[in-house]
Design brief:
76% helix, globular
């Protein structure tokens, strides 16, 4: 049973002259249709842009080193600035989202992300580029947990997994897509136009964000009765269903929303601690792999490194193809993780995935053939992504609407430390 289903009578109820229904029961009547597809599709575009920006920096570092003669310290600064402010953005905007709404936060940060991207592509020097990456990190940190929560709040509890699956698949697909686009055109058009090309989904996402409404669950717990009714009517209309005019919504307004201290209350402290630790370990492996792969592909897997006087070069076509193949494992992992969550559950599969990743990581300490290393990387990518899918299904189920995005951002903050 989820947090929402346990407390649904407190947070929102729909009543008519003969019976009282929970908001969850209204969602059951609404089902899944065009309304959910429009919202999920918009969030897919937002997350596609976010994850592309999170991954692209590891691919661009060799090219930036060539153009601006970056020192090792400055390369680390660029990578860490994105991930540090990504962690900070999750906590900051997670709390804000629980106070002012999911859509407003996503709209604001997506506009900022587009502006930062354009400035990145036009950066005259490494310092301007660094500053734009700071803004990008904040925006991604805000959007990732907020989109996940938003996707889980626009359908009945039994359909939440579909929204989570769509977004986790998008996050994994983005990694493969960036590598594939880089293989097709990065060396031909240059890194600046490559960034511009990756910004196109952001423009489409902003158009769609102007259409979709706020999360009905958020409106209900915010006491915004008229907006909640208007949103539900719009959803029913989009799903080609008649809205029962004889019902009203009994809203519940909690004045204390988005309080981080609530996440650490005795009722939630165990879940918060365990989820933070598990997510930290998994993210540590995922982003360690993302950052290490381009370096390993260009310098070899057995510890060889470029000396300062070596010829400056980026990734060649073979490197980019290997990167595309390895990151494609993430897409498979999301599908398998979602199916397992539906058929078996969450707990046991997460344990199995964690154990397998630990074993495979130990194998990388030995210098082995590059093809076998690629196979191990592929397997690690598969199991870490499956684990990631499962944990993103679990997190929204553990907290009520009033602190859901705050908790998600808080957990994402500690997990994001693993990215450093």
């Amino acid at each position: 049973m989820t947090a929402d289903s346990e407390q649904a009578p407190n947070y929102g109820a729909v009543t008519d002259s003969t019976e009282e229904k929970t908001l969850e029961e209204v969602y059951e009547v609404l089902g899944v249709g065009l309304a959910q597809y429009l919202v999920w599709g918009t969030l897919v575009l937002v997350l596609l842009s976010d994850m592309s920006e999170l991954v692209v920096i590891s691919i661009l570092i060799p090219y930036l080193r060539c153009e601006w003669d970056l020192s090792v310290t400055f390369k680390i600064a660029i990578s860490c600035s994105v991930f540090f402010f990504y962690a900070l953005g999750g906590v900051l905007f997670g709390s804000i989202s629980d106070k002012i709404g999911r859509r407003k936060v996503i709209l604001f940060t997506t506009v900022c992300l587009l502006m930062a991207n354009v400035m990145s592509a036009a950066s005259p020097n490494k310092w301007v580029f660094l500053m734009t990456r700071v803004v990008v990190g904040l925006c991604i940190g805000a959007n990732l947990p907020t989109t996940m929560v938003f996707a889980s709040e626009i359908a009945a509890c039994k359909y939440k997994e579909y929204g989570t699956f769509v977004l986790t698949f998008t996050a994994s697909f983005a990694m493969m897509l960036v590598a594939l686009i880089a293989y097709l055109c990065l060396n031909a058009i240059g890194w600046r136009w490559f960034i511009v090309l990756l910004s196109l989904p952001i423009v489409i996402a902003l158009i769609c964000l102007a259409i979709i409404p706020e999360s009905p669950r958020f409106l209900v717990v915010s006491g915004k009765k008229e907006e909640a009714i208007a949103t539900l009517k719009k959803f029913f209309k989009w799903n080609s269903l008649p809205y029962p005019e004889n019902i009203t919504i009994k809203t519940y307004q909690d004045e204390v929303r988005g309080n981080i201290a609530d996440v650490l209350k005795p009722k939630y402290i165990r879940s918060t601690t365990l989820l933070s630790l598990m997510y930290f370990g998994n993210i540590f492996i995922i982003f360690g792999l993302i950052i290490f792969l381009p370096l390993a592909l260009t310098t070899g897997f057995c510890g060889a490194v470029h000396k300062q006087g070596d010829t400056c070069k980026g990734l060649n076509q073979d490197n980019l193809m290997d990167l595309t193949i390895i990151t494609s494992a993430a897409c498979i992992g999301v599908v398998v993780g979602a199916v397992i969550a539906k058929k078996i559950g969450r707990n046991l599969p997460m344990k199995v995935c964690g154990a397998v990743v630990f074993f495979l990581t130990l194998l990388l300490y030995k210098c082995i053939a590059s093809w076998l290393t690629n196979v191990i990387f592929f397997a690690i990518k598969f199991f870490t992504t499956a684990f990631n899918t499962l944990i993103w299904i679990v997190i929204p189920e553990c907290y009520p609407t009033v602190i859901r995005n705050t908790a998600t951002g808080f957990i994402n903050f500690w997990a994001s430390l693993g990215e450093h």
